[in-house]
Amino acid sequence: MAVELRAADLAEIAGYAVQEFRPEAERRHIQLTLSAPAVVSADVDSARIAQLLGNLISNAVKFTPDGGRVEVRLGADAGQAVLAVADTGVGIPAADRERVFERFFRTAIATRQVIPGTGLGLAIARDITNAHHGTITVDSQEGRGSTFTVRLPLRARAGPA
Predict the structure, then answer these.
(1) Could you report the per-residue pLDDT of 81-105, keeping only the tens digit for each?
(2) Which DSSP letter does residue 102 get?
(3) What's the half-sphere exposure (Cβ side, CA atoms, 13 Å) at 53?
(4) 116-146 as b/e, with b when 16 or more CB fall inside 10 Å?
(5) Position 37 pLDDT exceeds 80
(6) pTM over 0.70
(7) Could you give the dihedral angle defined by the CA atoms of residues 45, 83, 86 and 15, in that order, rounded to the nearest 10 degrees?
(8) Which domains are present in the chain?
(9) Cys-Cys with 68: which of 20, 32, 64, 160 at CB 3.0–4.6 Å?
C-alpha cells in the first residue's frame, strides 16, 4: 500500500472521522465521543489515517447495541501517536481475536447476528497501519466490548519560536 506522508494534525483527522459517523450513532442512541489533546502532529497519509479511523469507528458503531458508547481517544506515548477506538459492543470471542485482521474473516458473533460487512475493514486498517510502520492491536471481552489501539511513529516537528 502506497502512502504519502505529510505533517498532519491527528486530532483534526479524528474529529472529522467522528463527525462522519455521528448521525448513525445518534440514530441508534450511541454516545460517540472524541478525547484528544489540542494537537498531535505526525507525518502520515491523512486520507489513509481517516480511512483507518473510519473503519474502526464504523465497526464500533455497528457492533455496539443501541444505547451503548463508542470513544475515540488520541494521545502520544514514548515517541508514538496512540489512536484508540473503544466500544461497549458485543465483543470478540477469544477464538476469533487472532484472526480479526485477516481478509474476509467474520467473527462468529457477526455471522450469528447477521451484522452486515465483508470482513475487509480490519484487514485494511492493518495494512494502513503497517504502511505507516505502526502496530494495531485488539483487546476485547465477549459481551463487554472491544478496544482497537493503533500506535504510529510520532516524529517531533519544530514549532514556531
Answers:
(1) 999 999 999 888 887 878 787 775 6
(2) S
(3) 30
(4) ebebebbbbbbbbbebbebebebebebeebb
(5) no
(6) yes
(7) -60
(8) 6-153 (3.30.565.10)
(9) 64
